[in-house]
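2024-03-11 09:14:02 DEBUG pipeline.ingest accepted 1 chain
2024-03-11 09:14:02 DEBUG pipeline.ingest length=185
2024-03-11 09:14:03 DEBUG pipeline.predict start
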Amino acid sequence: MLDEVYKFEKEHMSKSIDALKRDFQTLRSGKVNISVLDNIHIDYYGSPTPLNQVASIMAVDAVTISIAPWEKKLVKDIERAIAEANIGVNPNSDGEGVKLYFPPMTVEQRQENAKHARAFGEKAKVAVRNIRKEANDKIKKLEKESALSEDVIKKGENEVQKITDEFIKTVDELVKQKENELLKV
């Protein structure tokens, strides 16, 4: 019975780590990453469609992203959507596609992104702790049903804490790696 609780905890905490990694992808480091465009949607035949489903997106070099729409008429819509998204650059169109030129990051921007990385880390830690609470609640429920002895319950709670500590340590390591990446010039 406790194995199910541990499995639940590990599974959900792993999802929190995955969410943290996805959040980190939205932060710009030294070179551009096409994931900065993940939240941009285009009005495509009346429905909001993610940009990567109506165009090819490529990081040409460390500071340039090239967007080639599959239909030429979408160029204006893509330009407008990027401008409205306020990602820190103005779209440049040549009629065939859109190019985004990202200026080199300043020290202040790097520090600001490092602060965002720490905030994402704190959010992930809160999620991990909430999962710990759920796991402990499940153990307490088993205790009330008197399916387990007091010693087994205590052992289960200690194991839940041990798993939580491992995941918190992982979050701290990921945040530290991301901060180093962001602050490296």
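2024-03-11 09:14:41 DEBUG pipeline.report The chain has two domains: 2-26+106-183, 34-101.
2024-03-11 09:14:41 DEBUG pipeline.predict end
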